[in-house]
From TrEMBL:
This is N-acetylneuraminate lyase. SUPFAM superfamilies: Aldolase (SSF51569). It comes from Lentibacillus cibarius. Pathway: Amino-sugar metabolism; N-acetylneuraminate degradation; D-fructose 6-phosphate from N-acetylneuraminate: step 1/5. Catalyzes the reversible aldol cleavage of N-acetylneuraminic acid (sialic acid; Neu5Ac) to form pyruvate and N-acetylmannosamine (ManNAc) via a Schiff base intermediate.
Length: 288
């Protein structure tokens, strides 16, 4: 399961329906052009928290059908509704996804025992491995080393998608649990995470910048830090432009500019203005 995974975007039409043709094009672009090792499906980048249970299943279906066994597939099934998370975990496992992932339960201030029970409930429902999705800035859930250790006691918890800037904690997890997988979740910090010997990364900008991400990751593994730093700088120039223009709609517009039918974002995300579209195309011309 090691390697680089795209946090997969999903193509929607203007009414918010899944655009199957466009989604298939995004999948193939990530496999054939960006040459990713795997796809992380129905995460934040896939607008997972804006779509229905039926749409989540539809996306799992389409991605598995299109990707087949070409790459590894991780299904993000986490939800505030634990019954839904269990249902999605079973569904993705039956489809043949290589692993499931679940964001920490959010919004309500759950204590750690509630969080632990959430993960164990999901895992007890399926015969599959799970990757914790830790993104404190969006969930408000900050777990310490000992709490990660408690979750790792379940052998089916094989690792974590670590989307946090706490590199002290990242190093401590790496040192304490060398057998567990750690995926970096911040594209702009890939080099820093790679130096700490993460096992891979899961990134939204990999939809358009996956080849460069691989350069950073592999150069760091080879100890060629100066070269990796240069590629990270170029990557961060790209990311700064994307963030300034609107993260998800800009990546989708850049994909469309490159001939991939990435569609629209679901409301309440806004569409780019004509000026924003032009800016996205300028960013693509300059950095891709």
């Amino acid at each position: 399961m090691k390697g680089l995974y795209t946090a997969l975007m999903c193509s929607f039409d203007e009414k918010g329906n899944v655009n199957e043709k466009g989604l298939r094009e995004i999948v193939r672009h990530n496999i054939d052009v960006q040459q990713m090792d795997g796809l992380y499906v129905n995460g934040s980048t896939g607008e997972n928290f804006l779509i229905s249970l039926a749409q989540k299943k539809q996306i799992f279906d389409i991605v598995k059908n299109e990707a087949g066994d070409d790459v590894k597939l991780i299904a993000q099934v986490g939800a505030l509704n634990l019954d839904e998370a269990v249902e999605l975990a079973k569904y993705a496992t039956d489809l043949g996804y290589n692993a499931i992932s679940a964001v920490t339960p959010f919004y309500y201030k759950f204590d750690f025992e509630e969080i632990k029970d959430y993960y164990n409930t999901i895992l007890n429902s399926v015969d599959n491995d799970l990757i914790i999705y830790s993104i404190p800035a969006l969930t408000g859930v900050n777990m310490n080393l000992e709490q990660f250790g408690e979750l790792f006691e379940n052998d089916k918890v094989i690792g974590v998608k670590f989307t946090a800037p706490d590199f002290f904690l990242l190093e401590r997890i790496r040192h304490a649990y060398p057998e567990k997988l750690i995926f970096s979740g911040f594209d702009e910090m890939l080099l820093s995470a790679s130096v700490l010997n993460v096992d891979g990364a899961i990134g939204s900008t990999f939809n358009v910048n996956g080849q460069r991400a691989r350069q950073i990751f592999e150069l760091a593994q080879e100890g060629r830090i100066d070269e990796a730093r240069d590629v990270q700088k170029t990557t961060n120039d790209l990311i700064a432009g994307i963030l300034d223009n609107g993260l998800y709609p800009t990546i989708k517009e850049m994909l469309k500019y490159k001939g991939v039918d990435a569609g629209f974002c679901r409301k309440p995300m806004k569409s780019l203005s004509e000026e924003g579209i032009k800016r996205a195309q300028e960013i693509a011309d300059k950095h891709l």
